[in-house]
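Hallway conversation turned thread

IA: we were arguing at lunch whether anyone had actually written out Gamma-glutamylcyclotransferase end to end. Turns out nobody had. So, for the record, here is the sequence (196 residues) and right after it the structure tokens. Reply here if something looks off.
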Amino acid sequence: MKPQDLISGKSSLWIFGYGSLVWKPDFKYKRSQVGFIKGYKRRFWHGDNFHRGSDELPGRVVTLIEDDDASTWGVAFEVSGSQVEESLRYLNVRETVRGGYVTKTVDFFPDGEGGSPVPALVYIATSDNALYLGPASPEEIGAQIAVCRGKTGHNLEYLLRLAEFMRSSCPDVEDHHLFSIEAVALNVVSYLMAAQ
């Protein structure tokens, strides 16, 4: 389903971010809210040969994997009026330019509001994407992230910013996958610096 099909006739839209969007949305929005979606887990299973890696050394960024027992915390952005079309046009380039992404509508549960969930649009990299790397151990993922960089910067920065978001905005949530990879990557970087 195309994003445009999801918003026909709507004057506003929520967009859920679970990776770099949580700290760098780069589109105008009316308001943002920390919260979570159910039925998905965040995993560093997607490759990036542009922003956080190269063709020779692809970095790793997050995507969502379906899991009935899981939930993923992030930020939803409400866009309205002309922001709807502008944000979708921007995200279609940022998120789907390399293909292998799908858009879905999910229920977003705002943190601390105790109200009803709101429908939100989310972009998910699938295994059909040529850059999809799939599962690996925290040691393998962390070591890969520690040494990769792309046009936007170091892959490690992406990892650390995501971990910082979780600690500051969702302090009671334990994201074992994220934090175990962070620990490995930091150990690798410390080892490499000591070896110089």
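OS: looked through it. Residues 48 and 59 are 5 Å apart (CA to CA).
IA: good, adding that to the notes. The first helix runs from residue 3 to 7.
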